[in-house]
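Aim 2, interim progress: modelling of the zinc ion-bound target.
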Amino acid sequence: MAGKSKPKIFLIKDKKTKVQQLEFDRLSVSLRHLPESLSRITITCPFCRTVFGPDWFKKHELSMAPVKPKFERKGVEYTGPKRWILPQAPQKCPKCGANVMIDLPVNKMRTKGSLFGDDAERNYQNKKVSIYSLIGTDQSLLPEFENKIKGVKQKLFPSIPPNSWKIHMKDMWAGCSRKKHPVYKNLSFDDVISFVNELLVLIKKSNLFIYNIASTTVQKNTGNRKVQNELRNEIYILLVLNAIDEWTTKNAQPNIFFDSEKNSQANVIIHGWARDTFKGSQYSLLYGFLSKGIEIPEPIFVPPASSPGLEVADFVSFAIARYYLRMWQGKEIKINPKDMGLVTYLGYDDNGDLVCRRQEGYPWDQFVY
Ligand SMILES: [Zn+2]
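Predicted structure of the complex, ligand included:
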């Protein structure tokens, strides 16, 4: 330790301001699934020797997210890289009630990257599937990936600047919407098929991180708005946290952008439910283990298809939502998720447990549908 300066110890005031208290009271932890890798972790109480599992989903008084210093010096906002990281969190022994500290994993951030997200839904008879996808890559590979997407777009319409139109698969695929579209109207179905195949090849070759979650519901549950919103919040945060866990394991910080669906003049559109779901999750011990001391910027919602990555996320969500529909209908699969290469698929089995599979091709037989 000689030569190294002693770490400074800061005491965090546990008294929240009125505004902080209001936010804290509003937030809740909407997590109930534990990754298998964490299910083996136990704590031994030093006082009564009881061995117990941490309470992963309990809402703690303190957020597990790193804290940025507010000021550089008086009146000057701090913009540097320093963060305060929570090294330990308390867990109550179920037998003697003592507070036992558990160490949180701390990984160093060595790189950054971007992940782009989009959603999709399909209905069939009395069933509905809700899909979220995230696709992304390290920041060093992003410009090349974006250029390749532009190249594929340019090939479809050589005389139109690729930035002036967007990939929106729902409009491109269905003949009736294609005919009405200002750009797609002269495309034949064969043109669309060859465009889709080029995109699939590009996605597979680019070795992207691709995450997808699907959840199916039956009609009697979809009528209830509250149940629907809870389900949306759950699959959203499960997908986001799954990506965060993998990226922080690789010492990377993901910057997450979702398609806002709504057009807006603003560059960032606030979705209150997404913000609250993300912030709420940060009060759980699970968040501390998944984020590993790496600061994760809150996922932001940006104007539709405002970057090439979002256009690819639209394609991935479309492809998997359509896969569900075609499987339900017993019809031929024209866009096979297998052709996208390795994807992390999340879904539920018939016990309602979350299943995670990283593979080529959709794990249809392992999820409930
Ligand atoms: Zn004890």
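Residues 166 and 305 are 6 Å apart (CA to CA). The domain at 111-366 is CATH 3.30.420.10 (Nucleotidyltransferase; domain 5).
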